[in-house]
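Retro notes - structure team

What went well: the batch runner handled both jobs without manual restarts.
What didn't: labels got mixed up in the shared folder, which is why I'm recording both outputs here explicitly, each with its sequence directly above its tokens.

Job 1
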Amino acid sequence: MEIFRDWRGLPDAARGATLALGNFDGVHLGHATVARAAHAARPEQKLGVLTFEPHPRAFFRPQDPPFRLTLSAERAEALAALGVDLLFELPFDADFSHLTGAEFITQVLHDGLGAVNLACGADFAFGHRRSGDISLLATRTEVLGIGLTVVPPVADAQGPISSSRIRRLLQDGYPERAAALLGRSHTIRGEVVHGDARGRTIGFPTANILLGGHLEPARGVYAITARLPSGATHKGVANIGQRPTVGGTASRLEANLFDFSGDLYGQDLTIALHHFIREEKKFPSFEALTTQIAQDAATARALLTTQNP
């Protein structure tokens, strides 16, 4: 998959695609349906996705807590797995935010990308102050000779599948339910940084990852798998939270990989959350915490053995 971060001056090979439009945070089953609809409309053309970085919500509301399900690299990987050929990850800045809906269609989609077909959800909004909607898109694309597929919401028994719904499930401690809507386990990717090395002293060394721009799931202990840059995967147990027993104040992810030894500092790990084991809590002593960590690891091993991810 090729990635472009501007709609201007594109090579001829990057123009003329059939495009799926949206933020694609999480790249869940609804997003996959939009991508498939774009491909089905013009299967002879390259399949492209047009999205934005940063997420418009982060641009307009920078004071909000981190909320992203997938950061840029994770989103690109998930889209590539769907068979996307071209990813247009357009910078969302002040100038871009002031494009009107009509300008976005004409300047970006038509003149810049040369799109031959578009696919999007029925609630797709765009342009300055979200002035562009499906009605405008349908009117303008007909004039410009661009095909348009409007994809109805993908839903299950609980309602439409959305990034917001998946965020709530993760914050409530239901990674399995979130995985059902994502089509894969939720992951957090980040660089392994130095911690306080307490885990190493009790036989549970951990890889410490700052959450950064990721949504913080429910604080507590999870059964996980970790993917290393080499592609190797290891089962393990992880804590997400502030570590109140040892006086922590900033949330982070600490993962212990079973039956692994090696130096992971500076490497990017992808941690998949499979099962929520328990909530984070403050223990009366470090010794009590140590006992609980051993129990958590045994629980995670059992879960990952009986319900192999």
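Job 2
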Amino acid sequence: MPVFKIHHITRSEYDRPVIESANQIKIYPRERPDQETINHQIKISNDLVLHQYNDYWGNTTGLFTVSGQHQTLEIDSRLTIRTMAPPANLLVASKPSDWGLIKEQAMNDMALLDLTKPISLQSAAIIQEMVQELRPFWDAPALYIQRCSEYIFRIFEYKKGITTIESTVDEILEHKQGVCQNFAHVMLQMLRTIGIPVRYVSGYICPNSDGVRGAGATHAWVEIWLPSAGGWAGIDPTNNTWVSDRHVSLAVGRHFNDCSPVKGTFKGPANQSLFIYVSVGFENGSSCEDRNKVQLSVKDPLVSRTDFENAQQQQQ
């Protein structure tokens, strides 16, 4: 049962004063049997009051506002968490008969049914070809899901800086490059195309070896509804692995927008720089970290009163 210390900073800087900033954060670890929060502290600039609630998907969500003029805003999260490995017999437990059970349960649960609906794509035929190539319904669902993960890992190149948070599945299919957020969205589309309930997961990956993609940054994977697993089971197509005690889950939803770690709006014609820092510390004293800076501009700098949505950090 490893223990991780995760330091996550999001800082916005503006080239002129802005006002009435309203923000939402989803950087709280999910309450689940395989992870235990030991300590978690979140500090907002100027000790602003943080209000919490649970959203539709059960994610703990924080809200805060800044009413006065400001040129910087920083969110500092320091988390110590213990994780436990999920059951290792998932592939053994999954049976071909589970296909019918998945369909039956999804038809009788509106939340599950909502997670079976693929988005509309120009390249829907390409997804269909990918799905059929991997032979759905031929064997147990868990084996098919694993083939989907292997396919994404093999066909798509992991490359930072090619995509943004607004990149579509159509664009990912065209370029066959991207990061974890993109690969998770491709897998969502593949599995939903054949009616499997699947949800997006936002969190961190805490490696114990080199070569892990997305290490030291916010990460994304998917969870699939598998009755044989007792409910939700996670798989990480970016690293082609079932979720282990190296994954820390923060939020779930239909897609990235439901799980964005930080987003918000402000009023003013300012240009914004967004700085993200994530450090993961291990029990042996070692650590890994990731730094990212994004320059953002308002679409019309002459507008004196602008509502501008922050570009949330893209998950790597």
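One thing worth noting from job 2: The CA atoms of residues 31 and 37 lie 8 Å apart.
We'll revisit the folder naming next retro.
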